[in-house]
Amino acid sequence: MPASQTSLDTLSPAPKSKTPQLVPPRTTPSTPLHILAGWKRTLPEVDVQWISRALFKDTSYGSFDEQRIDKLWWYPPQLRLSNNIKSGVDRYFAHALLLWMTRRLWKVRLVCPYPSCHDRELVSAGIHPRVRQVLDVSSFYLIASEDLQCTRCKRKVVSWSHNIVEQLDIGHRVQFPCLLTGRNSCDMRIVRLLRNRG
Ligand SMILES: [Zn+2]
Fold first, then answer.
1. Which domain holds residue 113?
2. Ligand 1 midpoint to CA 99 (Å)
3. d(CA 114, ligand 1 centre) in Å
4. pLDDT in tens, 3-28
5. Which of 20, 40, 128, 156 has CB atoms 3.0–4.6 Å from 145's, for a disulfide?
6. What is the 115 CA–ligand 1 centroid distance (Å)?
7. Residue 45 contacts residue 35 (beta carbons within 8 Å)
8. How many domains would you assign to the chain?
């Protein structure tokens, strides 16, 4: 079953885990961070630095680097195992990031989901300003996306919306792994576990 959602633009904060969690230390990066303000607000603190380095240009304005979008999943730097090199403790707590920007990554044609627009094509309208946390079986992962805009009605929609994901062919659609609602975000493995419990 493909992932589904209940609204076109789901912006509610991610759920809090009810299981006890270790509290990661606060990090104090030594170099200025280049990242969207909305991402910085909505990312866990331990993920801001590595995502900034992975996806944003090292310039004074720090814009998102579209040229680097060549895969869906991004992972924090690996721990260093040498005794002579100390890894930052934040690496033990960092999360994977799903960069769901299908129009940019796969160059697929996506259309406005509103019937009155008669399949008018959507164009990119920038990086979605918020990142969501998705509950998985053992931890969280992060999902970031892009905004799309209809050239007719001018309405915007996030590319992780159900009405956009369902436009993809099955090979691409099954790579969307989570269920996003207005309030909650969880991986489909969680959904299947709950279903199996009846
Ligand atoms: Zn439209």
1. 93-196
2. 24
3. 6
4. 444 444 444 444 444 544 444 545 55
5. 128
6. 8
7. no
8. 1
How high does pLDDT run on average in the chain? 83
Summarize pLDDT for 52-71 with one digit per residue, the tens: 999 998 876 668 998 999 99
CB 186 within 8 A of CB 179: yes
Tokens of 27: 């990090």
In a domain, 1, yes or no: no
90 has a pLDDT exceeding 80: no
Question: Which SS3 state, helix, strand or coil, does residue 98 take?
Answer: strand
Going by the DSSP 8-state scheme, the letter that residue 6 receives in this structure is: S
- Strands (E) located in the chain: 73-74, 97-100, 122-127, 132-135, 140-150, 156-158, 178-180, 185-187
* CB-based contacts of 182, cutoff 8 Å, min separation 6: 6, 7, 10, 11, 12
> From CA 38, how far away is CA 146, in angstroms rounded?
13
